[in-house]
Amino acid sequence: MSTMTAAIRYNADGLVPAVAQDADTGEVLMLAWMDAEAVRRTLATLRATYWSRSRQEYWVKGETSGHTQEVVSMAVDCDGDTLLLTVRQTGAACHTGNRTCFYTPLTSADLA
């Protein structure tokens, strides 16, 4: 791996959170997890590849649903513990069928 990918700090499970953001609108679409192999596959193919913690396997976004993510760029944050993928999203990003996974607002009323 390059010096830049070596800067990624994985957690105790060997994973790092990866935020997917729409390259055109800036909209935050989803958060998933990657290990070093998922990072390698994503950079090699420019197809967002994640690690499923529940299924314990790799998944290429949209491989079964058709709701793909073409990676435009990938960056690591200043601490090395989070990735940002800017993507061209085809279809919904969320498994619920919503464009983004962040569609449930929270307010101070939710504290009660």
TrEMBL record:
Cellular-component GO terms for this entry: cytoplasm
Annotated GO MF terms: magnesium ion binding; phosphoribosyl-AMP cyclohydrolase activity; phosphoribosyl-ATP diphosphatase activity; zinc ion binding
GO BP, sorted A to Z: L-histidine biosynthetic process
Cofactor: how and how many bound: Binds 1 Mg(2+) ion per subunit. Binds 1 zinc ion per subunit.
Domain of life: Bacteria
One Pfam family, short name: PRA-CH
Swiss-Prot/TrEMBL cofactor(s): Mg(2+); Zn(2+)
Annotated residues for binding of Zn(2+): 78, 94, 101
InterPro entries, sorted: PRA-CH, PRib_AMP_CycHydrolase_dom, PRib_AMP_CycHydrolase_sf
Residues noted as binding Mg(2+) in the record, renumbered to the chain: 77, 79, 81
UniProt pathway annotation: Amino-acid biosynthesis; L-histidine biosynthesis; L-histidine from 5-phospho-alpha-D-ribose 1-diphosphate: step 2/9; Amino-acid biosynthesis; L-histidine biosynthesis; L-histidine from 5-phospho-alpha-D-ribose 1-diphosphate: step 3/9
Enzyme Commission number(s) from the entry: 3.5.4.19
Family: In the C-terminal section; belongs to the PRA-PH family.
Oligomeric form and interacting partners: Homodimer.
UniProt-recorded name of the protein: Phosphoribosyl-AMP cyclohydrolase
